[in-house]
Amino acid sequence: MARGDPSHIDLTIKSPEAALKFYDEVLKFMGYVGGKADGESVGAWMKPGTGFNIDLHEARPEHADIEHNRYAAGLHHMAFEADSREDVDRLYDLLLKIGAKVLDPPGEYYEGGYYAVFFADPDGLKLEYVHLHPR
Fold first, then answer.
1. Where in the chain is the domain with CATH 3.30.720?
2. DSSP E strand boundaries for 47-124
3. How many CA atoms lie within 13 A of 95 on its CB side?
4. Helix (H) or strand (E) holding 44
5. 24 with 34: CB under 8 angstroms?
6. Does pTM top 0.85 for this prediction?
7. Is the pLDDT of residue 134 over 70?
8. What is 1-61's CATH number?
9. CATH 3.10.180.10 occupies which residues in the chain?
10. 21, 42, 49, 78: which sits with the fewest CB atoms below 10 Å from its CB?
């Protein structure tokens, strides 16, 4: 890793069962490994060769009924890079198979070959899988 590269992201989730199933399917599709609890997290995945990891932490009971709002201060959305347009389409098929909420189906968004699918995790966090062409 180089100075300033992202090291990890911790996400707070309401239902460990729903979030673990969702993230295990989606992140393993993207090449992450892991999934088991690691320390205080209820699930953890690492991207081999990068050192970057994603951990899930259960929401505290006093905050468990608060809905995620990407337009409030905090995380708006998180995007992952796809290998190809076909890769975006394959993730879309997986999302449909696991019953994930698709916000916008695969398509050209913005300009310059920006091909993406937008979807939400079980807690409403917006996620994106994008292939940018040309580079």
1. 1-61
2. 53-58, 77-81, 101-108, 114-120
3. 23
4. strand 43-46
5. no
6. yes
7. no
8. 3.30.720
9. 76-135
10. 49
| Predicted pLDDT at 97 | 98
- 98 pLDDT above the threshold of 60: yes
Helix (H) / strand (E) element for 93: namely helix 85-97
What phi, psi does 103 have (nearest 5°)? -85, -40
Q: Which residues pair with 81 in a beta bridge?
A: 130
Rounded distance, CA 130 to CA 117, Å? 7
3-class secondary-structure state, position 1? coil
Q: What percent of the chain has a predicted confidence (pLDDT) above 90?
A: 74
Residue 21: is it exposed, middle or buried by C-beta count within 10 angstroms (0-12/13-18/19+)? middle
Quick one: fold of 76-135?
2,3-Dihydroxybiphenyl 1,2-Dioxygenase; domain 1 (3.10.180)
Residues with Cβ within 8 Å of 112's Cβ and at least 6 positions away in sequence, in order, are 132, 134
